[in-house]
């Protein structure tokens, strides 16, 4: 029968998938797979509407995995080898299933991890050594500042305008958003500490203010372009930037991935990523399971990851460590290796976030309010109370 | 009297094509005529009025009015579910929440501080943008209406931005205005230091106004241009004979007779500036801080982006916005009605 | 101050030639009437003088200064448009005031002039109305009013009285004449009304298909039309034309044979007519009397039109149409034969090209 | 030349520059830069590589670094202008860069490597058009199918819009009937509703009518645009009622009056609305995105949107496709704008 | 087929009353001319009959059927608008064809009718042009053409010839008369032209300020006007009125004293006039002759207008304006005193309310 996949792309992954599916259809002539390429906006805003109406594709690549989990199909009875799935994708299975079930909804096409990038050339030119793997946020701030001062660049560091991004250092500083009842807890000391420090940095000109003030509300803004143009010494973003840097920086300068700087509590990045899930409104669950089985098979996952430069979620592949990313740029390989390594040291608090229902709620409140503080519209203390009350209201609104 | 046979309006190739294309239309129109004549006999002129109005109203009712009504129902419900049956009735709670303020002049004292910030930003935006828009569109239309060489080229120049999608508009201007953008690049040789236009509250607001002006001015200019064409030429001749200065011709002849079309422009400009979103969202994202956060962005974020969504609150905000617009438009039309009557021959 | 000179003025719309080289001198303070058949170019010429229509070639000069490149607004003339061209969005009062306000006239004087013009044109009751709420004749009067309040150096009036009733037309005509006398401004006046043309004009210009046929005082044109066209055009009902051939030329006398053998002796001026030449006799309907006599012809009545003060007989003379106007009311039946006497009629002679002999 | 200049710089009336002439030309030239400049820049930018797009400061024209093939190296090398320590400048090709220094060769003497500080070299730029921005999407997506869908939606929606709106506008401008002001008011009131606000209810209605994943689901909700009714109605108000009277005396039915008298006389406003409708429908994005979730049904704008990912937007493709998709609307505009200047309604009256 | 009955038709625009109860029967095939001063309501009445203007009260019936609620398109009349109202976007040919196409006439017949009408109105050369490219008179002819090609049961013509030159006017008038005779369709004709009214009308309706003053045949109105208004309105130049008082009433003779003591004896019909009653004498300018005699008065010439075929003397008699029309051209200077003889003049008498005695 027909299987439709709703897919968005940040880079070449759409073409790779199309390639793989062509191969699949050659092997399974009875199944016709159609890939509906869409903008990420469609996945984020329109797919929920469709799903609630009981429409939707058969398979979709989604990031709001937990939020929409009640629409996912349980593949467990349909796939050929549930044990293989549990073994290799079990770590993230909880991110995409309704709380309290053991459903297999799908698998992560890619896991991402937040982390930093340094402009090695700038550091060299400034004669400042790159801080080591265990360097703290303060170390990086100090080093970058030196570089910025000597190289006359506008800002030393930047951190994407995103609640997800800022949560990584928050956790490193000991934050825990999750209350005892599983609902959001008020901001704790760890979070407040880092946010205070962060706001201080933006005021001092260490941290780029532009990216945070250049939007209102929860809008995502990245500082990647500044990094690409050598306007930043240090940029905290995530693994997904690697292909982007590879094409846009070229050999303009040397850059390195540094993993996540440490805080008092941990040295951790934030995991995330997109998952491929089956939708329960499908008319051909069997065929869907076949497609999913194929895409989740070790060889396919490996090929997919190698060609897209994505970090796979597949435990077996990661453990083997024989990924051979298809790139000629040694910097890319090195960077990917850094992230693959870092993914193994992610703090448990960070690991829990993607599977936590209220994560986006907290992220949203954080971004909105911290940005207002940086823009000078709100005192920091007010922001903390506002964040707490915003989150509380949302929880109340949802009627749960 | 020997007037030669008509050669002045020899049909051009385009007209020929047009005639061929029109032939089937003629036929169809002719065919419908007979039943419609019967209808007209039966119902009289007012019946025909209803007939002409009906198709529009039908489509309109189904695809605009009905959703609007549903939207109102939304505003009385709570929860994050998108579809009505799954939502709970909360009465006027959402409205109450929007109006929960201890001091209406200071948005930060409100429960929904973002809403009130957006309201005040939108207000100033509308005031500024609409005045400038009407002025600019009018000047452009007047100039394009002159006997210029290469008229179509100039028209295209001013209309061109309208062809661009808001996303592209926002993008181009962000690239122009950002710290290392084209503008700073161009200004640098003139001794202007690179400036971060978009992270300065005043400048980014001005940019939001300017860019939306840039993007939509051609639209209004075109409406006015068509309106200018409808003014009988002999009135200008009469004014010329009366020794009227161009400025006075404009104020006393052009403007009053343009009134029906000017009303369109004023009303549409007003409504669309209240609804401003896409290009500004791409351009400034509402920043810096919340200085260019407008109502539609608030509605969009509340209803679609934030987790969990709050469609009820978004609907309530949109209903409030609609109400304000209705009032404003009625005022406009009240003023315009006089003009309309005036324009009649 | 109001002398207008046209030198070889030509005008075409696309490839339609409308004016074929007009030469005309209009003196300061003169009242010139343009007459001519519908579509002959009167309005176009007026608009060209006004500066509303760019002429194709030639020159227009006002007071000796060429004005080809001067805009209408700067020529300082006033015009009554054939189509009125009233400002639809202004009240009658505003329509009248508009031109005056342009020249920054004090309000009191504007009011005074409007009051005067409104009284003169009998439009006082409508001053507050919009043109759309007026009758055709009322609109036309507003159009006239708009021109006269301006008191310009020259007026251009394009059939300004065509939609007025007889009484109003007479009075307005008289007012215009008085105005002309008082302001001594030049006036160019287009009309189709014979009475208007004859009574108002200092000189009449007869146009035909974009060319001037004759220029002269009204009685000059009436009594000595330069050609058959002018003869037929001036005078209502139009002059009768009888085609004939010269059958004998005696000193001081010309005998003309009409179509069916009638012979008519005409006292002729010195003439170079040959015997047998084709000739046209022109006789005005008013100069024919009933009754047989010296120079009489027989006619058959085709139609009788009683106008009250006079009776128009449509007759046939020698197979040609022949109009007779006799004063008073007469009980004549169509179909009867009557005798017409030409003894007191001045007879106009035209050669075969239509030129006056 | 002189005549051409005189033609182009035609002025109001006769001789001399009137102030309105000056304003006109200032406005036009200013407009050329401000209105057209950015658009032109967009056009050039669509030929830039992703790297060049992200480059600061931006260039106006699409430049890339010049490459040379040098003997002994498999791949072409990038050419640089290098300031040598002795102050002379030379064109050298870069073999590789290590840290702050780069190894360079003179293409003429490929054997000799020179060590150069990276700050004393500057890439040699040349004009180059990245046509792959244009060709790429043709490979990625089913361009002609999308084009057809777009054309279908645009043409149908525009036709229906014109007919339905002009009929309503006719009724609202030339008839006196009960409920006229109410109808007008309703139409105006709904002008205020942004689409994003009624999206969810509208979506329910579309699904209920079975128009989901159907091009008509895109077309129908847009055709009763209040804007169109409003524009046309206001324009029709300026058509003299006397012409309609005349047609009635000519035994024309109301339908004939509508389409033989009123429609032709509304041509300028219809042209305006047609242009708008084409632009809107062609650029429509949000709504088709919701209704059309299958790629066979995608319109160009929806197809184009696939380059907007979560974390990365492939602007080079988007710009190139924006330019491509703009061509038809520009043509439509150029064709239709001529009808805007045919206002003749008044000339049939005395 | 074309009988039109108006019963107590009233029309107001807002609070402006325009028609005050019009009662009129127009017979099938009759040609009725509406005359009246500008703004008296002629056009409004015509538009009401056409169905273009909703009447405020009263009833309009065509062929006995009330048509108040019948739309203009269904009344089957044709109209020539005072403002022409040509379709500006159609060529002349299309303007003419439009009405015929509406009644689904075969193409060949449409062409034939257009050709005929165009020939008749001399607009063949302009068939391909748009109205905007025509002269005023040409437009007016197209407007007439549009009505006549239709051959309706009734024509409504609102000043259809006002912008035509004299010659064309005469010929078009004749064509209209012929058409009327041929189609025997009812015609309602509004005109300000005396000659048109007198020659065309079966009956003339004189309107004044929204009321009918008199209805009758042209000569009836001319010879026995019902009141001073009609007397003054019919006939050009208008009738002279002399105010006076009855100084003695003798059997068969009435002596009237004019303002400055003149005494005028008038043969009076049976009359109930008292001595001392205020009275108005009406004398048409054409009925006055020069020279002293039986009934003569002295006048002072104020202005002499030479029309060619006749001369109009504006004089003053007993301090009142007095017009005299004498045939031919005369060399009279203004300011001279002349004797006028009224011996052959029918004298109309009106009482102080203006009613005919
Ligand atoms: N729309 C209107 N509103 C108010 N008054 C009007 C309107 N239309 C006409 N009138 C008035 O009604 C009266 C009659 O107008 P109508 O056009 O019938 O006159 P008419 O007899 O045709 O005059 P004319 O000979 O000048 O054409 C006029 O005094 C006019 O001012
Ligand atoms: N815009 C135009 N295009 C083409 N021909 C035109 C145009 N305007 C006028 N004409 C023609 O020029 C000629 C002269 O027109 P004009 O208006 O001057 O005539 P007129 O003498 O005023 O006639 P009337 O007495 O009918 O008003 C006419 O034959 C007319 O058809
Ligand atoms: Mg004319
Ligand atoms: Mg009238």
UniProtKB/TrEMBL annotation, chain B:
The chain crosses the membrane at residues 44-70, 123-144, 156-176, 203-228, 249-271, 313-335. CDD domains: TM_PBP2 (cd06261). Pfam families: BPD_transp_1. It is found in: Cell membrane. Keywords: Cell membrane, Membrane, Transmembrane, Transmembrane helix, Transport. It is a multi-pass membrane protein. Residues 119-332 form the ABC transmembrane type-1 domain. InterPro entries: ABC_transporter_permease, MetI-like, MetI-like_sf. Belongs to the binding-protein-dependent transport system permease family. This is Alpha-1,4-digalacturonate transport system permease protein. It comes from Phyllobacterium ifriqiyense.
UniProtKB/TrEMBL annotation, chains C, E:
Keywords: ATP-binding, Nucleotide-binding, Sugar transport, Transport. It holds the Pfam family ABC_tran. Residues 4-234 form the ABC transporter domain. It comes from the Bacteria. The keyword Zinc-finger does not apply. CDD domains: ABC_MalK_N. InterPro entries: AAA+_ATPase, ABC_transporter-like_ATP-bd, ABC_transporter-like_CS, ABC_transpr_MalK-like, ABC_transpr_MalK/UgpC-like, Mo/tungstate-bd_C_term_dom, NA-bd_OB-fold, P-loop_NTPase. The keyword ATP-binding applies. Signal peptide: none annotated. PROSITE patterns: ABC_TRANSPORTER_1, ABC_TRANSPORTER_2. Belongs to the ABC transporter superfamily. This is ABC-type sugar transport system ATPase subunit. It comes from Phyllobacterium ifriqiyense.
From TrEMBL, chain D:
Residues 147-336 form the ABC transmembrane type-1 domain. It comes from the Bacteria. It is found in: Cell membrane. Its main location: membrane. The chain crosses the membrane at residues 21-44, 146-170, 182-203, 215-236, 257-280, 315-336. Keywords: Cell membrane, Membrane, Transmembrane, Transmembrane helix, Transport. It is a multi-pass membrane protein. Pfam families: BPD_transp_1. InterPro entries: MetI-like, MetI-like_sf. Gene3D superfamilies: MetI-like. Belongs to the binding-protein-dependent transport system permease family. This is Alpha-1,4-digalacturonate transport system permease protein. It comes from Phyllobacterium ifriqiyense.
């Amino acid at each position: 029968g027909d299987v439709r996949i709703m897919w968005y792309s940040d880079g070449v992954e759409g073409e790779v998938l199309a390639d793989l599916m062509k191969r699949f259809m050659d092997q399974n002539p009875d199944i016709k797979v159609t890939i509906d390429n869409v903008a990420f906006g469609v996945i984020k805003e329109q797919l929920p509407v469709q799903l609630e109406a009981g429409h939707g594709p058969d398979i979709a690549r989604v990031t709001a995995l937990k939020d929409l989990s009640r629409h996912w199909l349980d593949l467990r009875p349909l796939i050929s080898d549930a044990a293989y799935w549990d073994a290799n994708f079990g770590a993230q299975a909880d991110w995409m299933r309704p709380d309290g079930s053991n459903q297999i909804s799908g698998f992560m096409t890619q896991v991402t991890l937040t982390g930093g990038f340094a402009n090695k050339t700038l550091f060299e030119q400034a004669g400042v050594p790159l801080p080591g793997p265990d360097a703290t946020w303060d170390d990086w701030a100090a080093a970058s500042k030196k570089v910025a001062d000597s190289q006359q660049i506008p800002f030393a560091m930047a951190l994407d305008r995103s609640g997800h991004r800022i949560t990584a250092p928050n956790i490193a500083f000991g934050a825990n958003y999750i209350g005892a009842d599983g609902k959001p807890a008020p901001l704790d000391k760890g979070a407040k500490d880092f946010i205070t420090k962060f706001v201080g940095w933006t005021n001092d000109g260490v941290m780029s203010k532009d990216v945070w003030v250049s939007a209102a509300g929860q809008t995502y803004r990245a500082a990647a372009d500044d990094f690409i143009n050598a306007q930043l010494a240090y940029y905290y973003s995530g693994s997904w930037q690697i292909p982007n840097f590879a094409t846009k920086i070229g050999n303009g300068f040397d850059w390195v991935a540094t993993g996540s700087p440490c805080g008092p509590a941990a040295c951790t990045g934030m995991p995330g990523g997109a998952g491929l899930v089956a939708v329960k409104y499908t008319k051909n669950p069997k065929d869907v399971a076949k497609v999913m089985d194929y895409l989740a098979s070790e060889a396919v996952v490996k090929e997919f990851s190698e060609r897209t430069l994505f970090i796979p979620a597949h435990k077996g592949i990661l453990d083997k460590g024989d990924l051979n990313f298809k790139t000629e740029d040694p910097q890319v390989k090195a960077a990917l290796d850094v992230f693959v390594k870092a993914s193994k040291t992610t703090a448990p608090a960070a690991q829990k976030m993607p599977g936590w229902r209220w994560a986006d709620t907290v992220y949203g409140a954080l971004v909105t309010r911290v940005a207002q503080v940086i823009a000078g519209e709100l005192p920091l203390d007010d922001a903390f109370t506002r964040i707490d009350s915003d989150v509380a209201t949302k929880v109340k609104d949802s009627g749960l | 009297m020997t007037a030669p046979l008509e050669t002045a309006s020899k049909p051009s190739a385009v007209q020929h094509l047009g005639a061929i294309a029109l032939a089937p239309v003629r036929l169809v129109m002719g065919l419908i005529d007979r039943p419609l004549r019967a209808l007209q006999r039966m119902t009289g002129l007012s019946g025909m009025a209803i007939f002409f109005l009906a198709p529009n109203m039908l489509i309109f009712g189904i695809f605009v009015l009905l959703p609007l009504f549903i939207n109102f129902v939304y505003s009385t419900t709570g929860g994050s579910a998108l579809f009505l049956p799954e939502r709970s009735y909360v009465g006027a709670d959402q409205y109450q929440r929007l109006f929960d303020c201890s001091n209406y002049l200071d948005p930060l004292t409100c429960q929904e501080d973002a809403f009130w910030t957006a309201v005040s930003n939108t207000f100033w935006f509308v005031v500024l943008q609409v005045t400038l828009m009407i002025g600019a569109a009018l000047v452009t239309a007047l100039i394009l209406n002159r006997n210029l060489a290469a008229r179509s080229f100039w028209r295209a120049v001013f209309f061109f931005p309208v062809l661009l999608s808001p996303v592209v508009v926002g993008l181009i201007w962000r690239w122009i205005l950002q710290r290392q953008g084209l503008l700073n690049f161009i200004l640098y040789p003139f001794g202007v230091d690179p400036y971060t236009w978009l992270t300065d509250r005043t400048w980014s607001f001005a940019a939001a106004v300017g860019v939306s002006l840039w993007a939509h001015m051609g639209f209004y200019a075109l409406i006015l241009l068509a309106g200018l064409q409808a003014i009988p030429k002999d009135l200008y001749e009469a004014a010329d004979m009366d020794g009227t200065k161009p400025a006075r011709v404009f104020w006393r002849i052009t403007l009053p007779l343009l009134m029906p079309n000017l009303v369109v422009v004023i009303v549409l400009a007003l409504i669309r500036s209240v609804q401003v979103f896409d290009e500004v969202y791409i351009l400034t994202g509402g920043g810096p801080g919340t200085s260019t956060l407008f109502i539609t962005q608030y509605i969009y974020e509340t209803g679609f982006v934030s987790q969990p969504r709050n469609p009820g609150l978004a609907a309530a905000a949109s209903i409030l916005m609609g109400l304000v617009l209705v009032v404003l438009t009625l005022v406009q039309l009240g003023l315009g009605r006089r003009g309309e009557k005036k324009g009649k021959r | 101050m109001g002398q207008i000179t046209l030198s070889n003025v030509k005008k075409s719309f696309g490839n339609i030639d409308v004016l074929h080289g007009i030469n005309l001198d209009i003196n300061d303070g003169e009242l010139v009437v343009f007459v001519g058949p519908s579509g002959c170019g009167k309005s176009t010429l007026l608009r060209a003088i006004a500066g509303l229509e760019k002429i194709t070639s030639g020159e227009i000069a006002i007071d000796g200064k060429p004005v080809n490149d001067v805009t209408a607004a700067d020529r300082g003339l006033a015009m009554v448009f054939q189509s009125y061209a009233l400002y639809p969005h202004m009240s009658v009062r505003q329509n009248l005031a508009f031109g005056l306000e342009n020249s920054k006239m004090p309000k009191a004087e504007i009011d005074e002039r409007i009051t005067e013009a409104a009284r003169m044109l009998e439009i006082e009751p409508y001053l507050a109305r919009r043109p759309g709420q007026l009758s055709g004749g009322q609109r036309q009067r507003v159009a006239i009013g708009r021109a006269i309040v301006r008191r310009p150096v020259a007026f251009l009036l394009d059939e300004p009285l065509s939609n007025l009733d007889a009484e109003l037309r007479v009075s307005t005509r008289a007012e215009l004449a008085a105005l002309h006398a008082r302001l001594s401004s030049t006036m160019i006046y287009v009309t189709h009304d014979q009475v208007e043309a004859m009574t108002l004009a200092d000189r009449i210009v007869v146009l035909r298909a974009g060319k001037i046929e004759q220029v002269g005082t009204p009685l000059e044109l009436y009594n000595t039309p330069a050609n058959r066209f002018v003869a037929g055009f001036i005078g209502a009902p139009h002059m009768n034309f009888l085609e004939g051939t010269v059958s004998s030329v005696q000193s001081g006398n010309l005998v003309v044979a009409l179509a069916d053998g009638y012979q008519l002796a005409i006292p002729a001026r010195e003439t170079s007519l040959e015997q047998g030449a084709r000739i046209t006799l022109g006789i005005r309907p008013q100069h024919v009397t009933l009754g047989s006599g010296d120079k009489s012809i027989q006619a058959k009545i085709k139609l009788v039109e009683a106008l009250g003060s006079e009776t128009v007989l449509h007759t046939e003379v020698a197979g040609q149409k022949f109009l007779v106007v006799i004063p008073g009311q007469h009980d004549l039946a169509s179909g009867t034969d009557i005798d017409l006497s030409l003894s007191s009629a001045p007879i106009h002679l035209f050669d075969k090209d239509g030129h006056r002999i | 030349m002189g005549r051409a200049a005189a033609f182009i710089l035609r002025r109001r009336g006769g001789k001399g520059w009137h102030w309105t002439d000056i304003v006109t030309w200032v406005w036009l030239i200013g407009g050329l830069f401000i209105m057209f400049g950015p658009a032109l820049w967009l056009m050039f930018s669509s030929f830039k590589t992703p790297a060049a797009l992200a480059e600061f400061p931006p260039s106006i024209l699409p430049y890339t670094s010049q490459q040379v093939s040098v003997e002994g190296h498999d791949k072409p090398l990038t050419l640089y202008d290098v300031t040598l320590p002795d102050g002379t400048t030379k064109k050298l090709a870069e073999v590789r860069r290590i840290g702050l220094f780069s190894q360079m060769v003179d293409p003429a003497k490929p054997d000799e490597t020179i060590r150069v500080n990276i700050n004393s070299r500057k890439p040699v730029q040349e004009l180059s058009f990245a046509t792959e921005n244009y060709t790429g999407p043709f490979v990625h997506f089913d361009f002609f199918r999308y084009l057809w869908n777009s054309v279908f939606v645009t043409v149908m929606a525009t036709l229906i819009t014109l007919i339905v709106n002009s009929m309503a506008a006719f009724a609202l401008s030339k008839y006196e009937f009960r409920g006229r002001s109410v109808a007008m008011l309703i139409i105006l009131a709904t002008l205020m509703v942004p689409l994003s606000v009624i999206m969810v209810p509208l979506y329910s209605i579309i699904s209920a009518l079975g128009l989901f994943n159907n091009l008509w689901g895109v077309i129908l909700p847009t055709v009763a645009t209040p804007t169109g009714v409003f524009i046309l109605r206001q324009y029709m108000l300026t058509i003299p009622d006397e012409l309609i009277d005349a047609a009635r005396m000519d035994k024309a039915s109301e339908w004939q009056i509508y389409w033989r008298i009123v429609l032709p006389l509304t041509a300028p406003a219809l042209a305006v609305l047609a242009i708008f409708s084409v632009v809107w429908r062609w650029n429509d994005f949000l709504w088709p995105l919701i209704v059309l979730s299958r790629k066979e049904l995608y319109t160009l704008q929806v197809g184009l949107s696939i380059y907007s990912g979560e974390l990365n937007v492939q602007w080079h493709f988007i710009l190139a496709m924006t330019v491509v998709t703009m061509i038809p609307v520009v043509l439509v505009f150029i064709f239709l704008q001529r009808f805007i200047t045919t206002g003749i309604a008044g000339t049939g009256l005395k």
